[in-house]
Specification:
This protein has 8 helices and 7 strands, in the order ααβαβαβαβαβαβαβ. The protein has 237 residues and is of the alpha/beta class. Helix 2 crosses helix 4. The structure holds S-adenosylmethionine. S-adenosylmethionine binds next to helix 5 and helix 8.
């Protein structure tokens, strides 16, 4: 266990700013109820100094553990959880309305294998047990395409170091994006990172969503609006 992983969030300096949205329209009553009843039962809590083993979040051991960063409305998270009931999924999202939407999928599809971190994912990542995940998804992250906002992008050296440390050897990191600036940025950072190998077999691979990669809301919106989603798979070497 490295010191970095044992560190409690409040020991990590400095506290980072969050630039996205936390709230949208008022929630309808059924979703408010889910936030009050279902969310507390499946929330992942970060406790200073305590390492979180994903296996400890579920009543019985599961085959694998997967992590989704910024799941938006939870469409991909729920589809993966429904298709792989023997896998434990941790979904992270800070936008309240997105969390409520994911809860409605979790309830409707009786998904027992999902846990939610409803805060800034950057506080959770250092608390998670190293080498405990088989897949990590970062789908259509906020692109912050202006150069002066580049420091807000999730993909950077430090976050890639943490993502690499959480994946088992041979495990997979997936990034989706429709933003030309972010695509170039993410690819440049990930391909020059020593822990990741890009799993592109031919030059058109990244334009076709793999069969085991369910659509997400932003991906569908991008397609409707004429943008071209790109799908990247990296192996943790
Ligand atoms: C552009 S949306 C994409 C959502 C979803 N992955 C999809 O493809 O439909 C990016 C999401 O990441 C979430 N997000 C951004 N920064 C975050 C953070 N630090 N912690 C948790 N969620 C974050 C945002 O709230 C937003 O819902």
């Amino acid at each position: 266990m490295t010191d970095k992983h044992a560190a409690a969030p409040d020991e990590m300096a400095p506290r980072r700013n969050f630039y996205g949205r936390r709230h949208g329209r008022p929630l309808r009553d059924s979703r408010k109820k889910l936030m009050e009843s279902l969310l507390p039962r499946i929330t992942v809590t970060v406790t200073p100094g305590k390492v979180i083993d994903p296996a400890s979040l579920f009543p019985a051991p599961l085959k694998e553990y997967w992590l989704e960063i910024g799941f938006g409305g939870g469409e991909h998270l729920a589809a993966q959880a429904g298709a792989h009931r023997d896998v434990g999924l941790i979904g992270c999202e800070i936008f309240l309305n997105g969390i409520a939407s994911a809860l409605s999928h979790i309830e409707a599809e009786a998904l027992e294998n999902v846990r939610i971190y409803p805060e800034d994912v950057r506080d959770l990542l250092p608390a998670l047990k190293p080498q405990s995940f088989d897949k990590i998804f970062l789908l259509f992250p906020d692109p912050w395409h202006k150069a002066r906002h580049a420091s807000r992008r999730f993909v950077n050296q430090a976050n890639l170091d943490i993502v690499a440390s959480l994946l088992k050897p041979g495990a997979e990191f997936r990034i989706g994006s429709d933003d030309p600036v972010y695509i170039g940025w993410a690819l440049a950072h990930t391909t020059r990172h020593p822990s990741f190998k890009w799993l592109a077999e031919k030059s058109s691979d990244w334009l076709v969503r793999p069969d085991d990669w369910p659509p997400s809301r932003y991906e569908q919106k991008a397609i409707r609006q004429g943008r071209v989603p790109h799908y990247f798979r990296f192996e943790r070497v």
